[in-house]
Design brief:
single chain; alpha/beta; 5-stranded mixed beta sheet; 16 helices; 10 strands; about 45% helix
Length: about 350
């Protein structure tokens, strides 16, 4: 699949803007003490790190900026433009980013969460859809190039439905809610917090937890621009430790975690606690296991997970080519593991 003209133009504009302000190349200089972080508004430890200023406390000599993005596709665009250094992004967009034509030079350095019931396919009440098979001829919305998009394609594939048998439209989560309210779409695959609003007037057809059990897991990952990691390894270590501290808070003090996440999502602590409960959060010590990132001695199975996602996307004609396993393994940042998180 070639890059659409509008997308290519967006990349050009973003790249020009990034280079024009002089920030694009500065963060590969060890003396340039700035970190540009892309975050997304879904319940995770990343929002705790932001809310409590954990990274700012750990790196008082750095100027840290946080910019909100609505989807993994826009995060990838920003990485291509060299306008961010660290980001929260789904595993499917990462698989795309590591594949042709994007070939983004970034590395996965953290697992924020494993998608569970916090991402799901929901049919709107009154749409006449009560099963995945009933989506034929219907209009379904999802953010393109996201984990939700990947999971939607996986759900259709599992049900034996061709993409051409329905209309899939590209909408960001907040736009999905508006289209849902107007009755413009019949179903949507989205994530929290917008997912909760859809559930109030819809029926869940399948969750990402169920698809993971069927062999199509998705995750939210923390990635870092490779050149930035090379120039600022200590800053990357501080960021990983801050994210690990947030995971510990989710596990040991759910009330405090919910308060921080709720403040970032502009929802009540009780709602935030319920949303956090729908995700799957690893222990920091789990990250260096064979199942996930692995260690400096041996890269973990996350590399194979991303490769499998790329192979599926290639079969769906969403990317041009699949990288080899060695390339994906190099894109797993295991420097200092397991000791850096122990």
């Amino acid at each position: 699949m070639k890059i659409p003209r509008l997308f290519a133009a967006a990349l050009l504009v973003a790249a020009t803007a990034a280079c024009g302000n002089g920030a694009a190349s500065g963060n590969t200089d060890p003396e340039q003490k700035t970190i540009r972080i892309a975050y997304q508004a879904f319940p995770s430890g990343d929002l705790i790190v932001k809310n409590q200023g954990l990274l700012e406390k750990a790196l008082p000599g750095y100027r840290i900026t946080w910019t909100k993005f609505d989807s993994g596709a826009s995060v990838n665009t920003a990485f291509v433009a060299k306008s961010i250094d660290i980001a929260a992004i789904g595993s499917s967009p990462v698989a795309r980013g590591l594949s042709a034509p994007l070939n983004i030079p970034y590395q996965v350095a953290f697992v924020l969460d494993v998608a569970g019931d916090n991402e799901a396919l929901v049919a709107r009440n009154g749409s006449g859809v009560d099963s995945i098979a009933a989506l034929r001829g219907k209009k379904v919305a999802t953010p393109f190039a996201s984990t939700a998009h990947y999971s939607l394609l996986a759900a259709l594939d599992k049900a034996g439905i061709k993409e051409s048998e329905l209309t899939i439209v590209d909408l960001e989560p907040q736009d999905i809610q508006a289209a849902w309210t107007r009755g413009d779409i019949d179903a949507a695959y989205s994530w929290l917090p917008s997912l909760d609003a859809l559930k109030k007037t819809g029926k869940v057809l399948v969750t990402s937890r169920e698809l993971a059990a069927a062999g199509k897991p998705t995750l939210d990952l923390g990635v870092v621009y490779t050149a930035f990691a090379a120039a600022h390894p200590d800053a990357v270590d501080a960021w990983r430790k801050a994210e690990a501290q947030a995971l510990d808070l989710i596990a040991t003090d759910p009330a405090a975690a919910a308060k921080a996440v709720g403040a970032e999502l502009n929802i009540g602590a009780d709602d935030a606690k319920a949303q956090l409960a729908q995700g799957v959060f690893l222990k920091p010590s789990d990250l260096s296991s064979d199942e996930w990132l692995g260690t400096e001695a041996k890269v973990g199975q996350l590399a194979q997970n991303l490769l499998s996602a790329a192979e599926f996307l290639k079969a769906q004609q969403k990317i041009d080519a699949v990288p080899d396993l060695a390339t994906v393994e190099k894109a797993i940042y295991v420097k200092g593991l397991p000791s850096v998180l122990s």
